[in-house]
């Protein structure tokens, strides 16, 4: 009997493991096929694909398969246990829900170092938003079916039906727990019930439920404006805009028949613009109108998808880290669980995207020089040299051949060379005109990107700050550098000595590396419960899937 169960669970989880492996293979292959050939060597080579697949295979071997064997053994009834004592230890056995449901709700999942406690039974009103979130996030079609059941016939579903639906939800989060159970040292962490029930997550569930209800009760036709609307103007769309702001929570009261852009409406528009990362000028222009036309269902889907991505990401966070949310143009520095600095940032243009990645800041450079990447040389600098032979001297560039020898030419010769293959490397000297500014924060990555200062601080006043060639420019770079100096820089005395008037590049080692995460979140809930949205500047949302194979939901 024990052997039969072990074999059955072994094959179930091998099936699951293979599904995960196949899914990741397809995703990685698709990523590579969508990357221009010129970029493949930088980040998505065949070697990296092989390594990534190998890591997933190792995970399958050391986590999922052993888990299946232990899970099978756990279902075998103990041979020498007093039934009454077991009932005292497990109150679920005293319920009147029947043996099938008792078995479902009292199953414990164990590995040598990992324990997942039984899930408490959820009431219908608590279960429905959990299922709705996974449905909207596109996790698996099974949750669409489960949600339709809950909505269509809530009063006739049996306890067994509710237990089955809850088990599907628990299986997904159990899968997530397994994926993140091993920390960097390879040890296992102890976890309580896996279905998220914390306050921030409940706030998201409440908001997507509200948006879904709005979508069912409010019409949301696309509005078209021939011109921008400003204070005092009259337009037939004003009443519709006012009502939308009211149901979305940006406007408290409104007059249904005025059709006039009032001061009261401007307050609501500015609040709406704040929540969407737009310039808060009260003008209803192209971008503001775009977001006014996004239906509650579209918002609910965005919030659900991003919540799942954010939830998966947060499970790997260290107590201290630096986070860049690319479409929000925003940086957050967290020190031992507390946010200590937030700043605007500039990220890559859509044609030169800042990559999504995880790394560690290993050093800070004071007064850096800039070694120009070949892509920027070709796209940006050579066209400038063609127009102006003095460009290199004006911008303080030194030119070297591939043997490291410094090269000198006349302005006319530089203009002529700019039209050739240009067999030289450029290094911009430290100083006021240096593109990196005064500070650079170095971290290992295959995309040649890093965090740095800027010589053009006025660009931070723009609302759309996708302006760089891929690197991240930080507005509050001096405050960030000061935090590094106080907390992580080893040689603080040298820093204090050189910082005021250093004229050369000086690297500073850190006492420990700081994790840095470049993420892509276009929707989230603030601590006050307000939902925020940002433009999908790189059109990545369709590619960032949360889908898992049905076999994953067999993890019981």
From TrEMBL:
Q: Where is the L,D-TPase catalytic domain?
A: 320-503
Describe which pathway this protein belongs to, using the record's wording.
Cell wall biogenesis; peptidoglycan biosynthesis
Q: Which CDD domains match?
A: YkuD_like
Q: Which UniProt keywords apply?
A: Cell shape, Cell wall biogenesis/degradation, Peptidoglycan synthesis, Transferase
Q: Per its UniProt record, what Pfam families does this chain match?
A: PG_binding_1, YkuD
Active site positions: 452 (proton donor/acceptor), 471 (nucleophile)
**Domain of life of the source:** Bacteria
Write out the similarity annotation: Belongs to the YkuD family.
Q: What protein does this entry describe?
A: Peptidoglycan-binding protein
């Amino acid at each position: 009997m024990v052997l039969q169960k072990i074999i059955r669970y072994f094959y179930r989880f091998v099936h699951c493991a293979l599904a995960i492996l196949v899914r990741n293979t397809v995703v990685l292959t698709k990523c590579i096929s969508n990357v221009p050939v010129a970029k493949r060597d930088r980040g998505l080579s065949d070697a990296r694909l092989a390594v990534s697949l190998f890591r997933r295979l190792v995970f399958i071997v050391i986590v999922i398969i052993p888990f299946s064997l232990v899970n099978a053994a756990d279902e075998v009834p103990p041979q020498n246990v007093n039934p009454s004592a077991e009932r005292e230890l497990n109150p679920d056995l005293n319920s009147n829900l029947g043996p099938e449901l008792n078995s479902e709700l009292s199953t414990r999942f164990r590995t040598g170092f990992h324990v997942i406690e039984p899930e408490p039974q959820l009431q219908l009103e608590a279960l429905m938003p959990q299922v709705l979130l996974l449905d909207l996030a596109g996790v698996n079609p099974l949750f669409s079916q489960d949600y339709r059941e809950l909505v269509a016939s809530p009063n006739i579903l049996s306890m067994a039906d509710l237990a089955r639906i809850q088990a599907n939800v628990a299986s997904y989060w159990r899968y997530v727990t397994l994926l993140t159970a091993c920390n960097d040292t390879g040890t296992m962490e102890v976890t309580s019930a896996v279905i998220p029930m914390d306050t921030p997550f409940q706030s998201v569930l409440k908001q997507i439920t509200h948006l879904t209800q709005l979508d069912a009760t409010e019409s949301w036709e696309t509005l078209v404006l021939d011109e921008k609307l400003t204070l005092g103007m009259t337009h037939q769309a004003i009443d519709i805009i006012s009502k939308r702001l009211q149901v979305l929570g940006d406007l408290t009261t409104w007059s249904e028949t005025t059709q006039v852009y009032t001061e009261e409406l401007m307050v609501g528009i500015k609040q709406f613009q704040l929540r969407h990362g737009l310039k808060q000028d009260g003008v209803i222009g192209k971008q503001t109108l775009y977001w006014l036309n996004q239906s509650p269902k579209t918002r609910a889907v965005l919030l659900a998808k991003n919540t799942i991505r954010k939830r998966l990401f947060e499970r790997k966070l260290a107590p201290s880290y630096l986070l860049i949310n690319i479409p929000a143009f925003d940086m957050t520095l967290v020190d031992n669980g507390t946010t200590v600095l937030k700043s605007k940032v500039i990220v890559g243009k859509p044609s030169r995207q800042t990559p999504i990645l995880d790394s560690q800041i290993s050093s800070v450079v004071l007064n850096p020089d800039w070694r120009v990447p070949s892509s920027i040389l070709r796209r940006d600098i050579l066209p400038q040299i063609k127009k102006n032979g003095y460009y290199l001297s004006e911008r303080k560039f030194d030119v070297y051949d591939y043997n490291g020898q410094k090269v000198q030419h006349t302005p006319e010769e530089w203009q002529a060379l700019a039209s050739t293959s240009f067999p030289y490397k450029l290094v911009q000297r430290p100083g006021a005109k240096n593109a990196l500014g005064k500070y650079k924060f170095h971290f290992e990555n295959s995309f040649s990107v890093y965090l740095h200062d800027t010589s053009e601080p006025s660009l931070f006043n723009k609302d759309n700050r996708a302006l760089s060639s891929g690197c991240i420019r930080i507005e509050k770079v001096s405050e960030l550098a000061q935090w590094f100096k106080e907390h992580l820089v080893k040689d603080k005395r040298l820093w204090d000595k050189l910082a005021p008037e250093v004229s050369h590049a000086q690297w500073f080692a850190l006492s420990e590396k700081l994790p840095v995460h470049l993420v892509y979140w276009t929707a989230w809930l603030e601590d006050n419960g307000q939902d925020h949205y940002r433009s999908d500047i790189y059109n990545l949302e369709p590619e960032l899937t949360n889908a898992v194979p049905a076999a994953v939901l067999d993890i019981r």
